[in-house]
């Protein structure tokens, strides 16, 4: 690792003098209601593998080092606090055992679990910690606030499919939850998981020169990801349900932080759950791991609605991340500033966009209003003004900025080769990059070095200097995931590709997909050029639903039809049930084995199914990012 440069150390010191250090309400709120924690705060699988280690963040108790942005250091120390906390009597949170929080609401005969973390192991540990202090209450309900894996992946650590099927536990989620949850983690899941390794610094050492947090939480757990489909869907704002004797009133907020999301109040506890629509950070409009761009305008509008719906007696607001906010006036102020944050970024980006500025320019032009800038919870620890503005531009105008010179540029390697040649060759380019590095212009140094490396990946001098450049950019970053991206890039340049340390793709996700979604997931894996001249026509007759489903591969495209036209020559017809079809499509069963077991009959060439699978690509869990 490189030592922090004078330029970055000075930048961090200058920032520290401008921060609202006199406002320590967050520190008090993050400590309030602590009942106890794990000792040590480490969670393991049954085989002993560590999936969560909060002890690794003990270094955050020390004074801020020069190699960490002081604002990020403060935030990281707050999110690393772990344990069971009383929000109000009857509502408890376990924080610091995963990227997200799990909240437990006591009912008449058991407990309601809200957002059971990422992994079954961390969720089980959190439930055990709660029971150590509050008694062995059975889980009567699980609530998913929204469709991201850190809010449902640990569900089988707190309940089971069998208990849900028996009616002993209800699973509640907003409308559209299941489709959005499985689609995000399957269709582009391979690329997202690889980039998530960068985003959360999964391969980085914990420490002042390494990973210090991700702004939203410390990092992601690495245990088993599970899924149980919802049994009760929330379809409208104002819908009220009584869950284990507890009144819950819901507000649907689709298209905000997630495509399917909801807030809800507990009137008898004078409490509101804000899901991930309001956190103690500026959130992402386009997460750096990749996703569909979120709508800042809709997000702000739903926060306005949340304020309108907030009754005068609500005295605590808690969320899926960070710590609660107590006091009605503080809650309204908090929500208002969060609303103004997203609305300002949206409206000002559109104003400047319509004056002809492009996303990269607007990102350098926007300064937040003073009242927003002064609040700790609006700072860019997870999202940033820079990449959120570019996301808003992308949402409205796409990748093309209108300049014809950018319409048909060379791809990265070809472009890099020409840039390096225009700069006088690799040695001349390297000298210019070194001069920029020495001058503290790390952004330009990174650009020049990227061209050198893409023109010649074996240039060790350029790789070493780029690693050092990334480290300097990391040391100055207030945004936790920017720091992780820079440091992971440096790590891979120095030590090689780390692959995909974690993945949310699990058998539960595949089983939750509809048959149509499963077929769509196969279609995006077809190696098109290999299949230009392939012709496969298979029809499934589903005995349990009286449906026919035809699969056709032609022109490199796999399509499926639920109302197939007559007259096409079939190569294979199979008769079975939907569960058997699902097993075949997920690769969990061979049709020949199912036929031998009497679960499937067929006419035609059964090998056509196997041939189809030979034409599919597998995602690459270790594609290069900082190298061509």
User: Total helix count?
Assistant: 22
Rg (CA only):
26 Å
Biggest sheet features:
8 strands, mixed
Q: How are the strands of the biggest sheet laid out side by side?
A: 1-4-5-6-7-8-9-10
Global shape = globular
Number of strands: 21
Mean pLDDT: 95
Helix- and strand-based class?
Answer: alpha+beta
Uncertain runs? none
Topology:
Blueprint: H1 6-16, H2 25-31, E1 34-36, E2 42-44, E3 50-53, H3 70-79, E4 83-88, E5 91-95, E6 102-106, E7 111-114, H4 120-134, E8 139-143, H5 161-165, E9 170-174, H6 177-186, H7 189-199, E10 232-234, E11 240-243, E12 246-252, E13 262-266, E14 271-273, H8 296-309, E15 316-318, E16 325-326, H9 328-353, H10 359-365, H11 370-373, H12 385-397, H13 412-422, H14 426-438, H15 442-455, H16 460-476, H17 480-495, H18 507-512, H19 515-523, E17 536-542, E18 547-554, E19 557-561, E20 572-576, H20 578-585, H21 591-596, E21 601-604, H22 607-614
Parallel strand pairs: 7-8, 8-9, 9-10, 14-15, 17-20
Antiparallel strand pairs: 1-4, 2-3, 4-5, 5-6, 6-7, 11-12, 12-13, 13-14, 15-16, 17-18, 18-19, 20-21
Helix pairs in contact: 1-16, 8-9, 9-12, 10-12, 13-15, 14-15, 14-16, 15-16, 16-17, 19-20
